[in-house]
Amino acid sequence: MNRLDLITNLTRELGVNLAGVEVVLNMRDKMEAMQHEVDQLLEFVRQHFGVEGDLLTERFRNALVKVPPSKLVQVRRRKVREISD
């Protein structure tokens, strides 16, 4: 759907005013930019860590978080005590 069709659909069929259309379009632009960044990160991981095959199945390509939970590493913060003189 091109941008003009989207604007027409939002205003005529959904009753969104022009301020609302601007918000929707800005959100879509941001989402597309974020998706591009995620795709670049995935490509970086593929190239530098050799992640291929089963890890890049359709399930992971369409996931919100595109890494399998089994590969995540939990980092725990240690409490640091302040030593007073």
Protein topology:
Layout lengths: L2 H11 L4 H32 L8 H4 L24
- Give me the count of strands: 0
Taking the sheet with the most strands, its summary is: none
Unreliable spans are none
| Radius of gyration of CA atoms, rounded to a whole number | 21 Å
Give the proportion of residues in helices. 55-70%
Structural class: mainly alpha
Q: Describe the global form.
A: elongated
As a percent range, the share of strand residues is: under 5%
- The total count of helices amounts to 3
Taken together, the total number of domains comes to: 1
Order of helices and strands: HHH
Average pLDDT metric: 76
Question: How many angstroms separate the termini?
Answer: 68 Å
Describe the structure.
This protein is an all-alpha fold. The protein has one domain (about 5-70). The chain contains 3 helices and no strands. It has helices at about 5-15, 20-50, 60. It is elongated.
